[in-house]
C-alpha cells in the first residue's frame, strides 16, 4: 500500500468515526432540548450502506494509486464539509432530528436546501475515483440516490411546518 493511499483511507475512516461520535453527542443534546427523530426506520440501512462504501474503499482500494486530480476535488469537498458543520454547529447530526425552532438559513443553506446531502453525493462518487474505482463510485452513487429519495422525503415532510411557519 502506498503511503498516499494509506493516508487517504485512514482519513476517511477516522473522519467518519469522528462524525458518528459528534452526531451521537449532538443528537442527545437536541433530544434533551425537545427535538424528536423522524425516519429512524431507514437509519440502520443508511449506516450499513455507508459502512459498505467505506469497506469497499478499503478492500478494493488499498493497493491502488491515488489520482491527485480527484484528490484535489475531495479536498475541496472537505472544505465544504467544514463549512456545513460549522454552520449547523450543535444541530448537525447523521439522523433526522427536528428541533421546533427556526431552520438554519445562513452559510451554504442560503444557496441549497440540502447542502450536506449534496456534499455526501459528491463524496460518495469522488472518494472511489481518488483510487480509480469507477465501478464503486457508480454503484454507491446509485444506492445513495435510492437512500436519499427515502430520506429527503421524510425530512421534507417533518420540516414542512417549520418552513411554512405553522410549527
Low-confidence parts, pLDDT < 50 over ≥5 residues? none
User: Main sheet?
Assistant: 2 strands, antiparallel
Strand-residue fraction? under 5%
Strand order of the largest sheet: 1-2
Order of helices and strands: HEHHEHH
The domain count comes to 1
Helix content: over 70%
Average pLDDT taken over every residue = 97
Radius of gyration: 17 Å
Which secondary-structure class do the elements indicate?
A: mainly alpha
> How would the global form be characterised?
elongated
What's the tally of helices? 5
Overall strand count: 2
For the termini, the CA-CA separation is 53 Å
Describe this entry's structure for a reader:
The chain is mostly helical and 167 residues long. The protein has one domain (3-161). The protein contains five helices and two strands, in the order H-E-H-H-E-H-H. Strands 1-2 form a two-stranded antiparallel ribbon. Helix 2 runs antiparallel to helix 5. The chain is elongated.
What's the arrangement of secondary structure elements?
Elements: H1 3-32, E1 36-38, H2 43-61, H3 68-88, E2 96-98, H4 115-130, H5 134-164
Helix pairs in contact: 1-2, 2-5, 3-4, 4-5
